[in-house]
Amino acid sequence: MSRRLHWLVLGLLLMAGGVGAAVDTFEFSSEQERDRFYAIGSELRCPKCQNQNIADSDAPIAADLRQEVFRLLEDGRSDDEIVDYMVARYGEFVRYKPALNRDTAVLWFGPLAFLLVGVLAVVLLVRRRQRAVNESSDAGLSPQEQKRLDELLNKKSQDD
Amino acid sequence: MRRLLLIVPLLLFLVLAGFFLQSLMTKEEGVTELELPSPLLNKPFPTFDLPSVIDGEPRITQADLKGPALVNIWATWCVACRVEHPVLNRLAAEGVVIYGVNYKDTNADAIKWLKDFHNPYQLNISDADGRLGLDLGVYGAPETYLIDANGVIRHKFIGVIDERVWDTDLGARYRALVEEAK
């Protein structure tokens, strides 16, 4: 393959990345509002196509929800208000970032708990192994052996 | 004690596997896709003020929905609704109260459908732009809501109501609400 073809293929691949996102024609009143729109859209899960957010999905329901997010934004609602609005209708499921409450505490703190357990296990193992090493070196020599070792060491230091 | 510690990972794995197996089984038993629990359960039916599908009939609001009743979300573009329709006709003939919400559809198509396939609905609400559907959290027709005598949503069913669904699930729920209203 020629070098030019490589670049062409790379270019096409890069372009393909943008095709996944759904295209709408919304007239945003400001850049900031556009950013908020996409931020909210990527945080809301499409209820029909359950592994996509509404910004990426081509499902009709996702288009409806985008339209609704846009309408609410134009209406001057805050991000939280818009997400709550959707949760009131479609349930907690629509949040890709679940709210922190009693039901979701395990979800939020579960990984941390696992990490702590892991760290604890490692610390305990390392300590135990260290102790085992220390004990074996202490207990490895009888008094005679220790005496002989000391003599040898002394002799060596005298030789120096 | 050391020995017991060794089997902890195995136990954890078994618990997890059991959990996954359970959700796998419950999913297979129901309809083809994962059903979302509705946050509207035990809440009053959303307020609305919409025209009737049929020209000349007065506008319809939530106050016109007299429970216990089924509120069925349907559309002419919805293939599954066509499968469901004969069952609704039969239920209506048996005296079950059904209200229809024609969702994101045109009145002309809806009227033709009701003429061709019979009209099982006591009222035909025209939700052409899907606003009521959005307030209800509808994400795919057909969906059916069970409301009680006070207009409170007591159950949501997603998918086609067929004989089996009615006999094993919805029918009993409906009759319970009728009993409750007495």
SSE layout:
The complex is a heterodimer of chains A (160) and B (182).
Chain A: H1 3-19, H2 31-43, H3 60-74, H4 79-90, H5 105-139, H6 143-159
Chain B: H1 2-6, H2 8-29, E1 49-50, E2 60-61, E3 69-74, H3 79-93, E4 98-103, H4 107-117, E5 124-127, H5 131-136, E6 143-147, E7 153-158, H6 163-181
Parallel strand pairs in B: 3-4, 4-5
Antiparallel strand pairs in B: 1-2, 3-6, 6-7
Question: How would you describe what is shown here?
Answer:
The complex is a heterodimer of chains A (160) and B (182). Chain A has helices at residues 3-19, 31-43, 60-74, 79-90, 105-139, 143-159. Chain A has 160 residues and is an all-alpha fold. Chain A contains six helices and no strands. Chain A folds into two domains: 3-99, Orthogonal Bundle (Helicase, Ruva Protein, domain 3), CATH 1.10.8.640; 105-159. Chain B folds into two domains: 1-30; 49-181, 3-Layer(aba) Sandwich (Glutaredoxin). The longest helix of chain B has 22 residues, at 8-29.
- Poorly predicted regions of chain B are 28-33
Task: Compute the average pLDDT of chain A.
Answer: 84
- CATH class of the largest domain in chain A equals Mainly Alpha
Q: What is the C-level CATH assignment of the largest domain in chain B?
A: Alpha Beta
Instruction: Tell me the number of structural domains of chain A.
Output: 2
Question: Helix content range of the residues of chain A, please?
Answer: 55-70%
Q: How large a portion of the residues of chain A is in β-strands, by DSSP E?
A: under 5%
Query: Structural class, judged by helices and strands of chain B?
Result: alpha/beta
Secondary structure class of chain A reads mainly alpha
Order of helices and strands of chain B: HHEEEHEHEHEEH
